[in-house]
């Protein structure tokens, strides 16, 4: 990340220096402003979902959900950390349901737990699963298509599902294959 | 899409009802969860700020437009319409940017067109990889290069596959 940041920053700053020196600071400030706005949005959704997931945890349902997936997840993540696996299983469930904003706080906490146990493989796997999108119902797309006047806005469902299933499987396979046991 | 809208209220209703029956102290429990929201958001903030400033620089310097132009021929020989090249490149960086592009494509080419269908599949089957990596690996010493590259490759394959599927389905 340090390399990407340095390279892109230097290249962009050089272009600004030559073509548009006055535009440089406003661009940085716009980025900062977006970060502040996005953080507020995230904070709002964390409030809702962290509250929700605490109830899920205390009611014992998170435990039941985790037990259901325990064996496959243990294999998938090569981990015995019950708490991290429970967070990971909730992250996967939230991802599949497409609950807006819900997967991130769970994913971050599961990743922190995996990394604390020096299990970088599990952290990589969880990230790849989330980053290749497992959403079963792409609600945003369907809503946007309906708004744009498509007669059957959901007819992209099957190709989307196949494409995303393919990317998740490819990602998981690549992660597992590139990892030394 | 009425059924999808039912999901969230039904989910909360079912969980809170179940928790109440199990005698969970709902108010205490919910607020205990919310308490973790501020530290989490604060810990992510520096990384979000750096990434968003960088992507703003990248966008406004014209580098991103130059990259899109340079990659357009490669995209069209892989069967990805050149009209959606921008969307394919923006999606890993910015969810809101991709959403804006998607609705622009819908209004420019019509929501029923082949291009719009490709765009919808690409949008629905990929994720904001760089943004997620900034958040997931925030503050850890681990180098996220490997999972990021794997995710980008997988999502790119699914983009090619998605455009192909839109042609035949």
Structural notes for this entry:
The complex is a heterodimer of chains A (181) and B (169). Chain A has 181 residues and is an all-alpha fold. Chain A contains 8 helices and no strands. The two termini of chain A are 25 Å apart. Chain A folds into 2 domains: 1-59, no CATH class; 60-181, no CATH class. The radius of gyration of chain A is 20 Å and the shape is globular. Chain B is mainly α. Chain B is 79% helix and 0% strand. Chain B has helices at 2-21, 26-34, 37-60, 63-77, 85-90, 95-109, 114-125, 129-136, 145-168. In chain B, α3 packs antiparallel against α8. The longest helix of chain B has 24 residues, at 37-60. Chain B is globular, with a radius of gyration of 20 Å.
Comma- or semicolon-separated keywords:
heterodimer; A: 181 residues; mainly alpha; 2 domains; 8 helices; 0% strand; globular; B: 169 residues
Record the SSE blueprint.
The complex is a heterodimer of chains A (181) and B (169).
Chain A: H1 2-19, H2 24-58, H3 61-77, H4 82-97, H5 103-116, H6 120-131, H7 139-147, H8 157-177
Helix pairs in contact in A: 3-4, 4-5, 5-6, 6-8
Chain B: H1 2-21, H2 26-34, H3 37-60, H4 63-77, H5 85-90, H6 95-109, H7 114-125, H8 129-136, H9 145-168
Helix pairs in contact in B: 3-8, 6-7, 7-9
So what's the overall shape of chain A? Answer: globular
By secondary-structure content and strand pairing, the structural class of chain B works out as mainly alpha
Distance between the termini of chain B: 21 Å
Q: If you average the pLDDT of chain A, what whole number results? A: 88
Helix fraction bin of chain A? over 70%
Total beta-strand segments of chain B: 0
Summed up, what is this model?
The complex is a heterodimer of chains A (181) and B (169). By secondary structure, chain A is mainly alpha-helical.
């Amino acid at each position: 990340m340090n390399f990407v940041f340095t390279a892109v920053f230097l290249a962009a700053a050089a272009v600004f220096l030559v073509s548009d020196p006055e535009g440089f600071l406003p661009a940085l400030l716009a980025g900062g402003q977006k970060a502040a706005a996005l953080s507020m949005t995230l904070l709002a959704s964390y409030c809702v979902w962290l509250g929700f997931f605490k109830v899920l945890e205390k009611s014992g349902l998170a435990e039941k959900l985790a037990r259901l997936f325990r064996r496959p997840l243990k294999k998938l993540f090569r981990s015995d950390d019950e708490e991290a696996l429970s967070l990971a299983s909730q992250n996967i469930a939230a991802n599949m349901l497409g609950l807006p904003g819900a997967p991130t706080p769970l994913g971050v906490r599961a990743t922190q737990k995996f990394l604390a146990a020096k299990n970088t493989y599990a952290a990589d796997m969880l990230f790849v699963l989330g980053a290749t999108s497992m959403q079963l119902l792409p609600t945003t797309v369907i809503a946007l298509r309906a708004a744009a006047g498509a007669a059957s806005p959901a007819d992209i469902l099957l190709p989307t599902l196949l494409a995303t299933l393919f990317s998740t499987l490819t990602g998981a396979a690549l992660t597992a294959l590139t990892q030394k046991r | 899409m009425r059924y999808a809208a039912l999901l969230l209220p039904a989910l909360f209703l079912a969980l809170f009802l179940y928790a109440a029956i199990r005698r969970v102290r709902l108010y205490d429990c919910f607020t205990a969860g919310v308490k973790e929201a501020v530290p989490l958001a604060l810990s992510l903030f520096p990384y979000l700020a750096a990434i968003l400033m960088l992507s703003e620089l990248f966008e406004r310097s014209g580098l991103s437009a130059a990259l899109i132009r340079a990659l357009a021929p490669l995209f069209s020989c892989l069967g990805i319409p050149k009209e959606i090249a921008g969307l394919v490149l923006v999606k890993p960086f910015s969810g809101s940017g991709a959403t804006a592009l998607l609705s622009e494509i819908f209004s420019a080419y019509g929501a029923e067109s082949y291009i719009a269908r490709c765009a919808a599949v690409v949008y629905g089957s990929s994720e904001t990889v760089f943004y997620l990596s900034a958040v997931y690996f925030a503050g850890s010493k681990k180098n996220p290069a490997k999972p990021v590259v794997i995710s980008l490759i997988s999502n790119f394959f699914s983009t090619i596959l998605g455009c192909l599927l839109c042609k035949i389905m």
